[in-house]
Amino acid sequence: MAIKYQVIGCSNPAGEEGVDYACCRAVIPDKVTFVDLAQEVEHATSATKADVVGVLTSFKEFVRKALLNGQHVNLEGFGILKPSLKGRCFKQQTMTRADFAPTSYIDGVDISFRVNADIKKDRIVKEKYKRLPSDLMA
After folding, report:
1. For FRET with 50, which of 8, 14, 76, 90 sits at 20 to 30 Å CA-CA?
2. Which helix (H) or strand (E) holds 113?
3. Which of 28, 32, 8, 31 is nearest to 20 (CA)?
4. What's the CA gap between 138 and 136, in Å, rounded?
5. Looking at 2-63, which runs of residues are DSSP E strands?
6. Contacts with 73 (C-beta within 8 Å, 6 or more apart), sequence order
7. Cα 136 to the chain's mean position, in Å?
């Protein structure tokens, strides 16, 4: 298998005026679902699909609760999930602890994932990229 990509036009904020820029973007034609994962684990182990679905459902609930509590979830050998805040900047001089209202400056929560270093080392090599036709390069 290869990662499929297209060459598309893009803007470069620091680029020269009147110069066209292009970049490579991954094209994701398919997705792997929860059911696909359960079937894969079922085939690789002696567990039944129902057992695997039960374990994975419990795992999802565990991760959800931990993230809602502001905890990092370290999936040994895979990566770390952690909550992060989306917020706006403000002038420090105009704000005191007494009149700071977090809801005025925090717009929501995102979940970030940092992949394990061993997985990063196994990055796909150039021979495993496949360019798809695009408007810029047929």
Report:
1. 76
2. strand 106-115
3. 8
4. 7
5. 3-10, 21-26
6. 63, 66, 67, 80, 81, 82
7. 27
Global model pTM greater than 0.70: no
What gap in Å lies between CA 82 and CA 72, rounded to an integer? 4
Hey, what are 62's tokens? 């565990």
Structure tokens at 26: 């991954």
SS3 content of the chain, % helix, strand, coil (to 5): 35, 30, 40
The CA distance from 138 to 135, in Å, is: 6
SS3 98: coil
Residues 6+ apart with CB under 8 A from 24: 5, 6, 7, 8
Residue type, 134: S
Both tokens assigned to 38: 């359960």
Q: Where do we find the tokens 């895979």?
A: 78
Strand partners, 109: 85
